[in-house]
Amino acid sequence: MSTRKYISRLAIGGICTAVALAASACGAGAPASNSGTAGTNTVNVLVEAGGHAELTGVAEQCKKDAGVDVNFVELPYDGMFNRLSSEFSSGNVSFDVAALDSVWLPSFKDALQPIDEIFTDEAKKDIFPSLVKEANVDGHFIGLPAWTNAEIILYRKDLFEDAKNKADFQAKYGYELAAPTTWKQYQDISEFFTKDGMYGTDVKGGVETEWLAHVLQAGSPMVLDGDKVVIDNAAHKEALDFYVSLTKSAPAGAAQVDWAAAQNLFNQGQTAMTRFWAHAYRQIPKDSPVAGKVGTAPMIAGSAGIGGVPGPWYLTVPKATKNTEAAKKFVQCAYDHNSLGVESSLGLASRISAFEKYQDKEGYESFGPLIETLNGEATATRPATEKWQQIVDTVLVPMLQKAVAGGDSATLLADAKKQIEDLLK
């Protein structure tokens, strides 16, 4: 299961919620609206199901502030790319604004209008640096980040603060038990808590993002450096060896563990730590055995410092819309009222000030570590290639599954390099 699919399904569970101020369509089978007539104040906004809730408050506020009415058209993640490809290719779009997964920007860049006027110097200071960089394609800003996410550390605060655990850990490892900040500390703590039917951590062989975060922490661009495939360099091997080393402190069957499985392990009290998307902290069920017992910390750091892989979605305006003025008003509203997304079911934003507004409030303890991770010196977005998802699905995940099952890392990385070079030809 991809990162994007997982988060979108978690956000609203596939349920379509009506927006009071406008009609709303649900699912791929919903009738498509025609793009707004030129000069009207109604915009059709195409969103993946998980993003609808994030933008509901923005839509309501935009009606008040700018007189813009919003029709949301929702599609499941699996069908959205094909819908976008078809409409962009035809030049006849049924939407005025589209929320795009970050990995789709390279594929659709030629069909999108520049929105440079929204990226003022002040705005750029309030958006995480990696997202400002990703939104700029071929010298123009083509997408405004509506919300973003990254992995942080979730850990069992009750276990870490237990007096006996603290004393035993100090005696064995020679330093104080606390939330890990380095690879070595994460390894030690994982090993320490693997006992009595519990595991120190999980290893997610079914997804690529976590290993790629460790690649960044080791000081290398992930997989590609420009047009050059660098997946077989020393940093990628170091990160893979570290990742695989944790299998001895994780439940068996790591090759099949994905986001949903890892979240379930932690929420059921079977792992003492997990590296996980920050939004999950606020979604721990109240009847979970770990509810009220979880602490948060920034993503761990390698030799290059703290590094994570952001998971942003961008609001874009197609060149083919007849309603550019109202569409750009909506995108501006999404920037101006970005903090409203924090109150949604997914509970995320993209502006630094929006996260800071909530970080000291009870229940939002994940926001401080998320800010630190997104500002990490090694944090970077995925490579800007339209082949990225194909690389993930056909090369990276199968390689990781073989690695955590005991495959030789150097051989696997060399094979992956050849496969990726063939895909990019």
UniProtKB/TrEMBL annotation:
Pfam families reported for this sequence: SBP_bac_1
Keywords: Signal, Transport
Leader peptide range in chain numbering: 1-22
SUPFAM superfamilies registered for this protein in UniProt: Periplasmic binding protein-like II
Keyword Ribonucleoprotein: no
Superkingdom of origin organism: Bacteria
UniProt-listed InterPro entries: Bact_solute-bd_prot1, SBP
Keyword Transport: yes
Alphabetical list of PROSITE patterns matching this protein: PROKAR_LIPOPROTEIN (PS51257)
UniProt cross-references to PANTHER family, sorted A to Z: ABC TRANSPORTER PERIPLASMIC-BINDING PROTEIN YCJN-RELATED, ARABINOSE-BINDING PROTEIN-RELATED
Family listed: Belongs to the bacterial solute-binding protein 1 family.
Protein name, UniProt field: Sugar ABC transporter substrate-binding protein
Source species: Pseudarthrobacter phenanthrenivorans
